[in-house]
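Raw record, unedited: DNA polymerase III subunit delta
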Amino acid sequence: MTLIGHEAPRSAWQSALSSERMHHAWLLAGKAGLGKMRFALEAARELVGAATSQAEHPDIVLLTYGAKDDKEDRKRADGKPFELARSIRIDQVRAMQRKLNTRPSMGERRAVIIDPADDMERNAANALLKSLEEPPVGTTFLLVSHRPAKLLPTIRSRCRLLRFPALADSQVEALLAEKAPSVDVEARWAAVRAGAGSPGAALAFIDQDLGPLASLIGQILREGDPSFVLRGKLAGAIGSRPDRERLRATLELARAALADDIEQCPRTALPERIAAHDALVRLTGEMPTYNYDPGLMVMEVGTLLARAGAASERADG
């Protein structure tokens, strides 16, 4: 495993593999875009003795977002593009548990990866808890988590924690220079700031052309938007039918902009800034499971920023 920032979790995993007693459940925690899923896959391959180049292995079980419904599932079966569900459902956990009633196919060990564990439905999480309380012999669970606080405390307490730290800006910039050499320096540093220590988020910033969005978010936050013009431009920059990842990126950009601004804004403008930041945190957490209208969500984000900007204007005046 050569990803930057994985040295400490890698060392802890290696020590556990070589010990006599291997913990049965691991929580891989850190912000999105740090490579936790790649770590989980490589760790699972090590555990079951699979070749590093092997794409699939019968003793590595992956739970992630499935098809949204039966119609989308048929599209997937036909090899067509399909829409993903917003959560990991209980039927997926039940199917995994049925598989755990059998012996591993090619050895004595089996790995179960859940990504992201934060987005399990409540019933799915409760069902998983039973497997964590009475783990099948030879089974190791790897739970990838971007927001560990969303997990049931009883799940967290049964897992050994592996923390994945955010990277320094210089490390993210060096990675972007390698992965996106055609991007100019100014755009690259904008991506670094937007990524806030996450190389995956920084690369997404470039891939999704989020620079115009970031500029508008900053302008609304600085100036407010009494005429609603900037909010209209923000909606146009996001697009009429943004996908979930673009909406999530917008929320993350707005939240990061507010977090940075809280460090510098006048004390009298702090309450509105903090309230807006808390609302964005809530929206980010709810988005995977709530069926929000994209247009209304974009306007809500713009309005939160505009109120914060107006509060700053009053403080300056």
